[in-house]
Design goal:
The protein is an all-alpha fold. The chain is built from 20 helices and two strands. Strands 1-2 form a two-stranded antiparallel ribbon. It starts with a helix and ends with a helix.
């Protein structure tokens, strides 16, 4: 099905508005303080909305409805830890980062453990984000291709070049304000999608609950032989259980809130600690319902195609087709022109708001933690601003190349490799930060020993036979990092004291 001209016009208007906003903020970027942090003057609600846009990508837009459409609500379980992770950020992380008036999260690592640990943290973040944005752009391009019929390579170029352009010229101001707009578009488009389903169903909203309950669609279960298999409450590392999945979720969201530059940068961009804390509350208050809504949307689509059967939908349920195609299929075949265009814009907004945040964060870390710290220490601020433009542009180009490689790979090997590399380079970084936050032990030597052991452990899980589900690799790796750093740090501290007598 081809895109209606009205939907195309709406998409062009959306792209034009975002581009204009980026060019508008380009005039403000006269120094790195503005380019990286927006002059540290943002209010909490603006930062919070931008965090929502960063946290929700096209992967979320497609995969969460696909999961609840084909299976059950198990995928929502990891998000249950988000409020607790946010509480940690509000109480511990935000005040700590704000007190030091830093620009990068990894400046803290030098203060606590020395310059080499700072460089390691910065370098692993840059590599991980370049891999991540390549994968996200690849998925955005596939979505754009499905929805518009444009050539896949052209979709990569259009989406990637567009995001790169307004991010490079507009800096953090453009990133945050476009993320706010994209969050609003995302929520509006998704709500319209559900509204059309409710309108077309003979029994309306109540029918969704009736049919879904009859098929146990709200269960925290996995799909086995076409039937729900309830999740265990045990602690068996050999399988996915409810407590261990929540623990995995804790690792992911604490890593995001405590170590990821694209979040820490926003804490520092707020006008005060109070506003930064408010931003986190706004993010949780909006993101949690959106994640919940995506799950419900997938369930609603199951009910819709149960009432109005379609061959394509049936094939997605039985595994002949990928379930991630259910939202695009519904948009193109069951939404009226205009509304379809808005939903397509929402889907693209979900991806772009993740990409722009990472590109700007990569530029910030590369300039502040590596270039300025080690290569050009005493240059004027305008020089660092120009370097930031170059780095952001280079990150955008590498993103285009990475997405193109993923697109033209003959199998999923390259995608699997990128996921494994991201896991490898990011292994243990949460453990390093938590060691610094919550203990007084550990130095450069102890942390490096922990890092090397964690890297070895991660390599073993990637290429060896392990007695636990690979789902828990990051959690175990961070616990290993923290334990080795704390134990060795304590031993070295005692040895040092003994040597002074």
């Amino acid at each position: 099905m081809k895109l209606h001209w009205l939907d195309g016009a709406l998409l062009l208007a959306y792209f034009g508005g975002i581009a204009a906003l980026g060019l508008f903020f380009a005039k403000k970027n006269q120094d790195t303080e503005e380019y990286f942090l927006g002059g540290r003057g943002f209010s909490g609600w603006v930062i919070g909305l931008s965090m929502v846009g960063t946290a929700i990508s096209s992967i979320t837009f497609l995969s969460m409805p696909a999961d609840s459409f084909k299976t059950y609500w198990l995928r929502f379980l990891p998000y249950a830890f988000v409020p607790i992770a946010a509480l940690f950020a509000i109480v511990f992380f935000i005040p700590l980062f704000r007190a030091q008036r830093i620009t990068s999260a990894y400046e803290y690592l030098e203060t606590r453990f020395g310059p080499s640990i700072r460089t390691y943290g910065a370098a692993t973040y840059i590599v991980a984000q370049l891999l991540r944005i390549s994968l996200v752009l690849y998925l955005v391009a596939l979505l754009l291709h499905r929805l518009t019929g444009l050539d896949q390579t052209l979709c990569i170029v259009i989406a990637g070049a567009f995001v790169g352009l307004y991010t490079v010229v507009g800096g953090i101001d453009a990133v945050i304000w476009t993320d706010v707009i994209q969050t609003v578009v995302l929520a509006s488009g998704s709500l319209l999608c559900l509204a059309v389903i409710i309108y077309k169903l003979p029994g309306g909203l109540s029918q969704i609950f009736e049919v879904a309950n009859a098929h146990s669609k709200f269960a925290l279960a996995s799909l086995v032989d076409g039937k729900p298999l309830p999740m265990s409450w045990g602690l068996n590392l050999g399988e996915k259980t409810i407590p261990l999945m929540v623990m995995m979720s804790a690792t992911f969201f604490l890593t995001e809130y405590a170590t990821a530059q694209h979040f820490v940068q926003r804490y520092c961009a707020a006008r005060s600690t109070r506003e930064a804390r408010k931003a986190m509350l706004v993010q949780v208050a909006i993101a949690m319902p959106i994640w919940l809504f995506y799950m419900f949307l997938g369930t609603a689509l199951f009910v819709f195609f149960h009432v109005f059967p379609a061959t394509e939908a049936s094939e997605m349920l039985n595994g002949t087709r990928r379930a991630e195609g259910i939202v695009p299929f519904f948009v193109l075949n069951h939404l009226p022109p205009g509304i379809a265009g808005l939903v397509i814009a929402a889907a693209l907004a979900a991806g772009m708001s993740s990409l722009d945040s990472s590109i700007n964060a990569v530029a910030t870390v590369a300039v502040v933690d590596i270039y300025k710290r080690h290569w050009a220490k005493d240059r004027e601020d305008r020089h660092y601003l120009r370097v930031a433009w170059v780095v952001a542009a280079a990150a955008s180009v590498l993103m285009l190349i990475g997405a193109s490689l993923l697109l033209h790979a003959e199998s999923t090997t390259l995608q699997d490799t990128s996921i494994k590399l991201t896991s490898l380079v990011g292994g243990g970084i949460l453990g390093v930060f938590l060691l610094g936050f919550f203990t007084r032990v550990g130095d450069t030597r102890a942390v490096w020993c922990g890092i090397l052991c964690t890297l070895g452990f991660t390599l073993w899980t990637m290429f060896g036979s392990v007695p636990f589900d690979s789902y828990y690799t990051a959690t175990i790796g961070n616990l290993l990092m923290f334990a080795i750093g704390a134990i060795l740090g304590t031993v070295l501290k005692k040895l040092q004291k003994s040597a002074t007598f």
